[in-house]
DNA sequence: GACTTCTACCTATAACCTTTAGGTAGTTTG
DNA sequence: CAAACTACCTAAAGGTTATAGGTAGAAGTC
């Protein structure tokens, strides 16, 4: 009875790979068992079930992205920092589509609180140091940046911009231009 | 043998209701059959399967949103039109979370081409008539608006902004302010 | 080095969802 | 009013989730 060397971590990373290959919602306990050439029930010693597996993948993705974002933003400011952060999300989503959609999984409050989610918020906020924004506009801007990045990436990933000129790479650059200009020129509330 | 009065349309709208109640990915042929108090196999005369059902719900949601967006944008221009369009998406997502996530379903190219997707693009483009944008910036702006709206709505729906000051309603208003300002002041490409 | 103990993985089982095939009872049409 | 159609059925096969309880190999103990 050769042992496959299962563990919660190995299952999580294998699940993440599986997600990237076949899509996050095709990630199933059975498919994972097949990948390890092991019976399904064996996974239940390491993972509580399919929901648990999915949230573990989501947490992994959030951490990985936060790590990359941290590196990318370090030592940069202004538009350069903005572009670095945006590129992290966009590149990650293209290299790891399954993980990226996993990261969008709705987490229950406690899990979310223990996740790398807060790090993402802090990193985005750090970028705003290069721009002159006071509270509460800073928070508004954090949310707007998050929305724009996530929205762009998820629409592009979903094929929303596909096959029509101009290509999405230049739109992405112009989007970064636009967001940079917006932050430098943050408007007062409308009357 | 009383007839339940099934039809593809009734199944689709019932499926949409179900999605709003229990979440789009909990929409299952079995659950729908239960709702009509009918055996599962009976649905397969009206719907090809669970995938077919899901895309029908997605198409319905896209149409409903496009209808609402068309009404909302008519007779408005500039910031007013921008806010009207954004509010349509946001309100729709909050009233019909299941349908909204359904609308994000990745469609195969032919289905997408026959969907209301193009109407959404046209409506967004129509809004830009109130701003002075030439091509290709107009397309970039269409994509940016789509990203910002979708990103905001989906993060808010997923609880991303939850329970932290300032409240999401004012962030939403300030986001509209910001996008309006951005469109009025669209930047030239960075050097 | 034998003995316990832990761990990794197993078989078996039950519940649920999907999908297809083929049948029967209402409803509509000529 | 018979033929044809439609709406719904039973039956069955295959896949996924999940739990309970069992066995073999590895690790620690004397």
TrEMBL record, chains A, B:
<dbReference type="Pfam" id="PF13305">
    <property type="entry name" value="TetR_C_33"/>
</dbReference>
<dbReference type="Pfam" id="PF00440">
    <property type="entry name" value="TetR_N"/>
</dbReference>
<dbReference type="InterPro" id="IPR025996">
    <property type="entry name" value="MT1864/Rv1816-like_C"/>
</dbReference>
<protein>
    <submittedName>
        <fullName>Transcriptional regulator, TetR family</fullName>
    </submittedName>
</protein>
<dbReference type="InterPro" id="IPR009057">
    <property type="entry name" value="Homeodomain-like_sf"/>
</dbReference>
<dbReference type="GO" id="GO:0003677">
    <property type="term" value="F:DNA binding"/>
</dbReference>
<dbReference type="InterPro" id="IPR001647">
    <property type="entry name" value="HTH_TetR"/>
</dbReference>
<feature type="DNA-binding region" description="H-T-H motif">
    <location>
        <begin position="28"/>
        <end position="47"/>
    </location>
</feature>
<dbReference type="InterPro" id="IPR036271">
    <property type="entry name" value="Tet_transcr_reg_TetR-rel_C_sf"/>
</dbReference>
<keyword id="KW-0804">Transcription</keyword>
<feature type="domain" description="HTH tetR-type">
    <location>
        <begin position="5"/>
        <end position="65"/>
    </location>
</feature>
<keyword id="KW-0805">Transcription regulation</keyword>
<keyword id="KW-0238">DNA-binding</keyword>
């Amino acid at each position: 009875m050769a042992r496959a060397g299962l563990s919660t971590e190995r299952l999580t990373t294998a699940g993440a790979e599986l997600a990237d290959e076949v899509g996050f919602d095709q990630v199933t306990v059975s498919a994972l068992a097949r990948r390890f050439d092991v019976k399904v029930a064996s996974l239940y010693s390491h993972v509580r079930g399919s929901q648990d597996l999915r949230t573990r993948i989501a947490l992994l993705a959030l951490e990985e992205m936060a790590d990359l974002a941290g590196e990318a933003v370090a030592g940069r400011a202004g538009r350069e920092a903005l572009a670095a952060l945006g590129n992290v999300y966009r590149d990650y989503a293209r290299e790891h589509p399954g993980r990226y959609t996993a990261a969008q999984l709705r987490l229950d409050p406690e899990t979310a609180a223990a996740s790398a989610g807060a790090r993402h918020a802090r990193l985005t906020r750090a970028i705003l140091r290069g721009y002159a924004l006071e509270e509460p506009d800073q928070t508004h801007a954090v949310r707007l940046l998050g929305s724009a990045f996530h929205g762009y990436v998820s629409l592009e990933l979903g094929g929303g911009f596909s096959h029509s000129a101009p290509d999405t790479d230049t739109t992405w650059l112009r989007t970064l231009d636009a967001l940079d200009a917006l932050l430098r020129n943050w408007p007062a509330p409308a009357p």
